[in-house]
Amino acid sequence: MSTLALRQERRDEGVVEPAQLARAWDTPPGLLGALASANHKQIATRYIVTAFVFFALAGMLALLMRLQLATPEAHVLGPDLYNQVFTVHGSTMMFLFAVPVMQAMALYLVPLMVGTRNVAFPRLNAFGYWTYLIGGLLLWGSFLLNVGPDAGWFSYVPLAGPAYAPGKRADVWAQVITFTELAALVGAIEVVVTAVKMRAPGMSLERVPLLVWAMLVTAVMVVFAMPAVMVGSTMLAMDRLVDTHFFNPAEGGDVLLWQHLFWFFGHPEVYIIFIPATGFVSSIVSTFARRPIVGYPAMVLSLIATGFLGFSLWVHHMFATGLPRIGASFFSAASLLIAIPSGVQIFCWLATLRTGRVVVRAPLLFVCAFIAIFVVGGLTGVMVALVPLDLQVHDTFFVVAHLHYVLIGGAVFPLLGALHFWLPKMTGRMPSERLGRWAVAVLFVGFNLTFFPMHQLGLAGMPRRVYTYLPETGWGRLNFLATVGAGLLAVGVLLFLANVAWTLRHGAPAGDDPWGGDTLEWSTPSPPPSYNFAALPVVHDRHPLWSVAPPGAVVGLGRREVLITEAIDATPDHRHALDGPSLWPFLTAIAVGIGVIVAIFTPWGVTLGAVLVTITLTGWFWPHRPAVEPGR
Amino acid sequence: MTAAGLALAVLLLAGCGGPAALAAAGPQAGRIAGLWAVVFWIAVIVETAVVAFMLYAVARSRRPGHDPAGARPEAGREHRAVVAITVAVGLTAATVLGLLVASIGTDRALASLTRSAPLTVEVTGQQWWWDIEYDDPVPSQRVRTANELHLPVGEPVLLTLRSRDVIHSVWVPQLHGKQDLIPGRTTSLWIQADRPGTFTGQCAEFCGYQHAHMRLLVVAESRATFDAWRAQQRQPATEPTDPLGQRGRAVFLAGPCVLCHAIGGTRAGARVGPDLTHLAGRATIAGGTLPNTPGHLAGWILDPQRIKPGAHMPAMSLPAHDLQALLAYLAALR
After folding, report:
1. Which among A154, A368, B242, B311 is least buried, having the fewest CB atoms inside 10 angstroms?
2. ipTM over 0.90
3. Which pTM value belongs to this model?
4. Residue where a domain stops, chosen among B233, B260, B295
5. Cβ–Cβ of B207/A339 closer than 8 Å?
């Protein structure tokens, strides 16, 4: 039936003119057009830019903390401000930078890599971005008004509960979670459906690029992990707003329940941030080693195994709560087990580099820095997986070092490498190789200078989240060193951003495929047009652009339509009309925003939000006759 | 560049004999330090091997100025690579399994430290100090103090841990790992010091404004010294004999101090703040953050918020002569 439909198409339409595609897919001009946009590349670019703004802001908070800790008993920040600063730093980095920016990369790259024209639900995608933006503005607006959350990005009860956190700070945190998790779930659904149902004909599961696999596994993890923290933060908000006692031991509640809910999300969160980075690394390694990644099946299975195992080790954040020893051993074993799939991936990349013909370019240098740093983070991860060692280093600066080795080393370095790598595709211009190399070098030295001493500080007894320390502790020298490193790290970030700015103004035209990549996005013009592909590609193997048989083309589909294919073997199934630009997602996000923000102050916010959302959703789903495209 | 980072890494970690968690003063911290040494050297070997291999793989085929888009991609030579990967994964799995066994063994050893009828100390965490009470079947023989835990050397001691407000975590790195104090629950921790000395600890779970200033001193001493200390702590407070001290006691008992503090042998019996019966015998005040000198004590009484912003002790505005009297009285509470 499907082949029949395609043949039909071919006879009916022949090759579609780009102008016709542009009419069908372009975003309308002007401000209203921009607010209504449902183009995945526009939305993803907004996500990336917004996430980097939050990254820069949270980075400045980190510098403030480093200034405060540079010397013992310093007075840069008092305890009240320091607690807000580290809470907003952590919450921003986790909820407003790391997860959204990885999803944004997925929203940009996945449709291009699987060879389709947009994500599965374009308007929902727009809604996700606006929700995320409102959540971010809520957090930072509150912080600037001195109502910033101050109970840590983990908001442990009872410290964040009604008895010990008067005011609205903890409520702001809980509602920021609502926004960002909503956005994350939306993004995850987009990626899952796009990657499963919208792949180019011929892109059966064993031909899916590793990056798409990584994004798919991540998205599935998001779908399972985020509800736990949404339940938790809702229970926290209810404890605070309507006097429920979920977490109040005096009324039969349990404070450890919060920790279980939070870490059931919180630990997979680490992999939700790290797994997309492995996708970037695979793309970069494969391109610059000039060969396919060694052990593709092992890589895919490792990703999936990491996705499963990621859910079975949350309790290793709770070894010091006094769990039964048998239970602790189980989670210790699960935590150690995850070293195996991570090891498989590292070994496969190394083997690819060893057997390839390596061309050294800045993105590859980012990857090399990633491997050197991430392996340290993985090894300290093994240390904290061992219960006895964890009891010593848990909640100390050792863990601060560990998590930054994993998250900056494991995610930010690959992300910066990926941006350097795909910047030519996104902007049509080549970044500066020289600036890129300087950025890697300065970031690498600055990073290690900042975070390596923290291992030693933790072993020396310095707990996390202290706003100061006494001179007689002897922690001053290493802290000073870390602060110097943080300055250097900031210079590295500035060099990277300078390179992006330089690229936009002076970069040489990139052409379609400046690096000789293997995946479909490199077959489009740079930057890709609103409809991505003039003709939807048909692929014959795992590396369509390196194949002796270049990708074929689906003929037709001139309207705002995509091709839906079978989940396993990507045979064409049917054509599917996608929604175009609309203001309703924006208005619905505003309605959700009003409801959730008012709910910080009164439970009536829920009612108000329900009414407003009903109105906007009615508008969103109001049935209308599909407009007949010109040229039909 | 990478090599320099690694060199820095090894250099810094090699000097790890010093940090408190590895300078063990008790059997448990000693066992953990032993496990640390094993894992640390495995980590150094793995990191060195990975980075060296990566640099070799990249440097080997480096051709400057080479155009990536021009180099034709090719596969091939995958078989040997797959064998190598399989071996590496097998080694990883074996290492991880070995570490798990070592870890569970250490964990069992940590849990094996018990004895019947031990010295039991109830430690209650609160914002931002430690309430310490030595258990005794005879209620009058119980001893209550704050922020300073005295232990006899060479004996396992059972700490019974509770929290009066939010979650805290007790951690004395030279003796043992940490154990959380959780509201609504009672947890416990066995510790033992093998040599006399003073070991510092600190709350390790974020507990609010003054998390940074919630310190604990552990004083390990010989059994005889400990018994003498405990016997002395059981005595009621020293009665002041000089007029200044007597006046100071009157200031204490007539003022707001009694709303929170207790002094054995007087009417002051509140348990909100630290017990002051033998305040002068303690080395520190303000949750272990200030040396216990008259000057610091005066500063603390007059304006605790300057020293520990957010602390629950309110500022006292005392006339100078009342303050001097109060300090004289408190300084005599040995």
Report:
1. B242
2. yes
3. 0.94
4. B233
5. no
